[in-house]
Amino acid sequence: MRDASRGYHKIVTGQAGEHHQVDATYRSELKDLFEVQFSRFDAKLEQRLAESDTKWERRVAELKTSLILWMFGFWTAATFIILGTTLAILKL
Prior knowledge:
Layout: H1 2-91
C-alpha cells in the first residue's frame, strides 16, 4: 500500500511539475504578447499626441494672427477718432 501511495505521489508530483512548466510557458508567452501590444499602444499614443500638439500649435498661431489683426484695427480706429476729435476741438 505504501508503495502504491509513493507511486501516486510521483505521478501527481510529475503532473504538477508539468502543469507548472506549462503555466510558466504560458506566462512567458503572455508577457511577450503584452509587451508587444503595449509597445503598439505606446506608439499609437505618441503619434496621436504629436498630431494633437501640431493641431494646437496651428490653432494658437491662427489666434495670434487674428489677435494682431484686431489690435491693429482697434488702435488704427482709436487713433483716427482721437485725431478727429482733436481737430474738431481745435476748429471750434
